[in-house]
Design goal:
This protein is mainly β. The chain has strands at about 5, 10-15, 20-25, 35-40, 45-50, 60, 70-75, 80-85, 90-100, 110-115, 120-124. It contains no helices and 11 strands. A hairpin with a 4-residue loop joins strand 7 (about 70-75) and strand 8.
């Protein structure tokens, strides 16, 4: 059974930083792309960033490019999202996800496994 557990969320002032972590278990972590998504109140869930199996390829939504950095540590079965220069509009519940298949680039409809989410609140 695949489990994804996020941590690292919290309350931070605008301009501050947070690092989110997502620990995976129940599947061969190194075979699959991982991603981060977020959902703000009253809005649909949106894509934030993704990383391929090795960590050598990454992609970002335009809204976070240059501010957020995704990485992974395959020895720890963990993916990270370093968030810098945070803005109030970054406030959301952040989710990590794993692809069903081991392909790159990831297929948008094939994010099959999800964590429970971690709240990030950025005050102005």
């Amino acid at each position: 059974q695949v489990q994804l557990v996020e941590s690292g969320g919290g309350l931070v002032q605008a301009g501050g930083s947070l690092r989110l972590s997502c620990a995976a278990s129940g599947r061969t972590f190194t075979s699959y792309a991982m991603g981060w998504f977020r959902q703000a109140p009253g809005k649909e869930r949106e894509y934030v960033s993704c990383v391929n199996w090795s960590g050598g390829r990454t992609a970002y939504a335009d809204s976070v490019k240059g501010r957020f950095t995704i990485s992974r540590d395959n020895a720890k079965n963990t993916v990270y999202l370093q968030m810098n220069s945070l803005r109030p509009e970054d406030t959301a519940v952040y989710y990590c996800a794993m692809q069903y298949e081991g392909t790159w680039p990831p297929i948008p409809t094939r994010w099959g496994y999800w964590g429970q989410g971690t709240q990030v609140t950025v005050s102005s």
